[in-house]
What does this fold into?
Amino acid sequence: MPKPHIPQPQNVRRITGSFAWIDHRLLRQGYLQTMTHPEMALYLFLVLAADRQGVSFYRKEKICDLVALDFQQFEVARDRLISAKLIAFERYCAFSPNGYYQVLAVEKTGPAPQPSEIVQLTKSLSQKWLAGF
It folds into this structure.
């Protein structure tokens, strides 16, 4: 195998101080293809903010401010990441919008294939059209 060319060998990154990683299976197993930009932004933030167990506890308002999401985008992204089993969330108490976030280990199998928006729209329109008869 040929040796890859390094454009700036004097600037090769090195681990110093704290460290975070993003599992390559997000790319290889199709997670990225199913994630929206708000989900990617939230996931990246949580990975960077997490401790060694993957836990962070930033407030919702602070996260939204730092990754430029409104509250609705944040909540949808959070819920989809939970559904994809990429993160877990536990509220501080029943009435709190804030709590503990945990970045979870990426499962060995990728996400279920999602139909494209066009296919979903076609199915929806077909069902509505058939319901009219």
User: Anything to note?
Assistant: The longest strand covers residues 87-91.
